[in-house]
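Issue: copy button drops trailing tokens. Both records pasted manually instead:
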Amino acid sequence: MKIARDAGGPWLEFLTEIVGLTLTPSGEVLYFMPMSSDAEILKAFPAAAEYLSSIHLICRDYGHTANHRLAEWLGVSTSAVTQALGRLKKIGLVTQERYEHVFLTDEGRALALKVLKRHYLLEHLLVKTLDFPWDKSDEEAKVLQNQISDALAEHLDARLGYPQTCPHGNPLPGTPVEARLLAAPRLPQATAGQTVTLVRITEEGEGISEMLPFCQREGLRPGARITVQSVSPDGVTVRSGDRAAVQVPTVLAKHLCFDPSL
């Protein structure tokens, strides 16, 4: 079998990177090796990690997702999302009827959960062990999450004491605290005079560039006890300890989750 290399484009990329065909310089098919391991998938398509984990997170918080929502979450164009989903469908990691919601297959969900666990463990390593800034650990972990092996992830999990959340309060999949944290109310749902404990900054909130630096600066981290002074359409004014009161803009406040019982 011979394939014209000068055809180029997405079709050639699909054959060589996703299907697993290896071609000689003249276009002869040398061998066929379907990708079977997660490492092979992430090597051929590194962005798969971010797409799969994002689909899982959006569905976890909101029940479903579609192309435009995924594009908004990732900060990319809808055409980029459509192209990426096409690649993921071809290797059996997502399903989607035309213009309908996107769903992870069992294989896609397993890889998404693996990526998320690696990401959260790397955040803990950066913050707790290497004293890396808390508000910058999310972006740094994204750079590293595709590079570590399953063996290293298991080692980190044990050395870090099997953490149940990331440093920003998001639960590791399948942990006992997951349901409680996902059900925690958002800060705009609090009432004036109420004292609550912050437990989580949503993954969507972490994607807002000013979110983590603002929370770091104002001491609004999981475990912080705050008193709500007022709630308005513009934001929620809170006070923590001996700090001055600060208004948390609604665009940020809606991603801060609290537990009124703590």
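Record 2 (pasted manually too):
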Amino acid sequence: MDWLSEASGILRGYRNWILSNGLVIQAGNTVTIGGNHRSMRFDIITIFPDFFTGPFNHGILKRAQTSGLVEIATHDLRSFTHDRHRTVDDRPFGGGEGMVLKAQPIYDAVQSLDIEPKSQRQSKKATVILLSAQGQRFTQTLAQQLAVTERVVLVCGRYEGVDERVNELLCDREISIGDYVLSGGELAAAVIVDAVVRLLPGALGNPDSSRFESFGVEDQEETVSSDGMPRSTYGAGGLLDYPHYTRPAEFMGLTIPEALAGGNHDAIRRWRRRMALKKTLENRPDLLQNIEFSDEDREILAEFGWRESWDG
């Protein structure tokens, strides 16, 4: 029966090659073969366009651009100024520290992109986002929403802030990547592009990679993974990911958990769920407030000291 095992391995390898080359779109148990993925475009408006040369020229982002899955364009804000000093900022009305990015250059930059007016914009066609410490927090849920949008324009804030009329006239939302302040929106733009692009069908070698990870999908009844093997992963459903181990099985006196060494897929899934609950309770207890737990989940959390009314 060795030839059957060999043939099975060849078929699995061929399937993975198809997946990694963007020829399969998979949603649940449905697989569609064909290379016509929807192409997405990012336009980034910034005073430092060269900043993005490094982040976008490596790994998944580079492959996604090369394959035509995504197009990323940067636009120098100073090219849309109208004075010889190429001025993009000015002092704030009412006084105060710092400088404020002017509305006119940003308005002209967005207009040059042929984006529909804010009042006529369809959310899945195009969206304009201001990157600001005052914005809503960027989450995996928001990344998933942007991943079905054809065109995303990111306006990188700088200095003390951006003239609020930019927000009122042009932007659909403000986004912040965390509760801290950066020198500008360029780092935030790179983070958002990376988080969104990896969710596009065909961007990752294995389509399950973006499903079974921190903040990933709810667990499903599927018993096999995309490569046809029994599934030992557990859908996070808003939890943090479980711990991971690789060879060697022992390192500096520390051995891998017994559950991972036994080869029992059900046991591995149960261990991973348990550890995901534990890690979330330890590192991000706030996430537990929005998750529906099974009775088994509650028993596991109680073992680790969690109470249902506990507020962190």
